[in-house]
Amino acid sequence: MRKVTFQDIPLELVEKHDGLGRWAILVGLRGSLAHGLYIRPDEPMGTDDVDLMAVCVPTEDYYLGLAQFGSRGTQEIARGSWDIVIYEFRKYLRLLVRGNPNVLGMLWLRPEHYLKLTAAGRELVKQRKLFSTKLAYKSFTGYAEAQQKGIAKDVFHGHMGTKRKELAKRFGYDTKHAAHCIRLLRMGCELMETGELRVDRSAIDREELLSIKRGEWALSRIQREAIEGFGRARIAYERSALPEAPDMTKVNELCVAVIRKAWEEREERDR
Questions:
Q1: Cβ proximity of 188 and 233 under 8 Å
Q2: Which site among 61, 185, 188, 203 is 20 to 30 Å from 237 CA-CA?
Q3: Which pLDDT band holds residue 242 (cuts at 50, 70, 90)?
């Protein structure tokens, strides 16, 4: 498994994008690296990028004035094998409240998968269970359904690189979509049952998910597993003891506290 540190990020990207550098309160692995499912590009089945996510708190003029961060609070950077998404903190919180699988996973990474974590970022991670609610069921199953539809609907999806297209044509379906679908259903089910998100699949079902990703499962088997997964997730949702939605009073208090902490940290650092 490839090890990535903050120092590995191209310096020009950090210097050019404040949301990745001086404003960032959290930078962590996402995608295959975070899930323990990374396949190196030099391997026959390797199509993975180095996926990162950053959460940032810009300066006061972005909150008190008319300045805007990125496109509706989001910046995306694609440079070679690097695929980075940066969220302004309030945009990130809004996605957390809805139980978005991609952003929720950033609060449940292994310690070594955080490339940067400030005191403000640690405060956010400490409050992660605030976002473990039944709202996440719809998000996880919705994302899984989108992946399911993309498995064999059309071998040549616009976002696929040449190698991935060739592999999809070879196996008759997109193995990456298939692995994502099954993983999302299992993680969503676990969240409904335990209130915790197990992002790193290394000690759970890593080898099985990698076998799907490598095209070792027949499409019919994947389809059966998906149908069963949706069923298990529905039962877990119906039996879940999680709250229906986050406590928005506490979410708002967290929002204010994290922004203030980030500004205080930066002020102390810049003295």
A1: yes
A2: 203
A3: very high
pLDDT band for 166, please (50, 70, 90 cuts).
Answer: confident
Beginning with the edge strand found earlier in the chain, give each strand of the sheet holding 114-117 in spatial order: 74-79, 82-88, 50-56, 24-29, 114-117
- Lookup: tokens for 153: 């609907």
- Residue 271 maps to a domain: no
Note down the domain range covering 157.
135-239
For residue 121, what are its two tokens?
């970022």
Provide the 10 A C-beta neighbour count for residue 246. Answer: 20
Of the ranges 142-151, 206-215, 260-269, which one carries the lowest mean pLDDT score?
142-151
Burial class (CB in 10 A: 0-12, 13-18, 19+), 170: exposed
Give the single-character DSSP code of 241.
Answer: -
Q: Do 151 and 57 fall within a single domain?
A: no
pLDDT at 153 over 70: no
The pLDDT value given to residue 1: 55
Residue 154 confidence (pLDDT) above 70:
no
Domain shared by 123 and 146, yes or no: no
Show which of 131, 155, 182 is a domain's final residue: 131
Give the chain's mean pLDDT. Answer: 94
Examine the domain organization and report whether 110 and 180 are in the same domain: no
